[in-house]
Amino acid sequence: MIAPRRWPGVGFDPAQGGDQGNRLGRCLPLKLFGTTPSPKNMKRPPLWLSGLARFALPLAFVSLVAAAVAGISSPLFFAILFSAALVIVVVRTLFPVGRLFPIAFASLIAVYAAIFSLFLEEIFRGIDDAFLVVGFCLPIFFFLVGCPSNTRRLTRDLRPRGG
Q1: Cα-Cα-Cα-Cα dihedral of 20, 25, 26, 31, to 10°?
Q2: Spatial separation of the C-alpha atoms in residues 62 and 73, rounded to whole Å
Q3: Structural domain that includes position 89
Q4: Smallest Cα–Cα separation from 154: which of 112, 83, 104?
Q5: Is residue 22 one of the residues assigned to a domain?
Q6: Is 40 part of a structural domain of the chain?
Q7: Each residue of 124-138: pLDDT tens digit?
């Protein structure tokens, strides 16, 4: 029986210095893309910075969508940003197990804002700004009010499964 051929990339182990098992090592003396871990790369960013990034980056994305949808000076723009910030904070508080859960909901707020804008431009032209803000925020508010009743079930479903 013939042994299966091992390809050059098989055997990569970053814990042992980067490119062990690389048969092309003699041909490619350069270590591309920083495959060898160094002590300066092993430092972890502060925990608050990671939390801030998980809040600020989705909010920046939602603000771009809100500016495209409503314009920067519109009350709807601020309603979109406020509701996205509120969703991120509430979902992170209620479901700390799901790390990407708040980011997904902030992205859904951006999609909801785009769909809301589509209906607004095609069907509901000329509606007062106060009604627009209430019409946008009310479904999100009721969603957030309903979240605590399903927290236990959703937290169980979001928990990482063991292998």
Answers
A1: -120
A2: 15
A3: 47-158
A4: 104
A5: no
A6: no
A7: 788 888 898 999 999
H helices present in the chain, as ranges: 39-42, 47-70, 75-94, 101-122, 129-146, 151-158
Q: pLDDT tens digit string along 31-51?
A: 444 455 555 555 665 665 677
Question: pTM for the full model?
Answer: 0.62
Number of CB atoms found within 10 A of residue 133's CB: 19
Q: Which of 121, 140, 126, 145 is nearest to 81 (CA)?
A: 140
> In this predicted model, what pLDDT tens digit does every residue of 18-35 receive, in sequence order?
544 545 545 544 444 445
Residue type, 71: G
Residue 63 in tokens: 């603000």
Q: What residue has token string 């949808």?
A: 69
For the chain, first and last CA: distance in Å? 33
Contact of 137 with 81, CB cutoff 8 Å: no
Instruction: State the total domains in the chain.
Output: 1
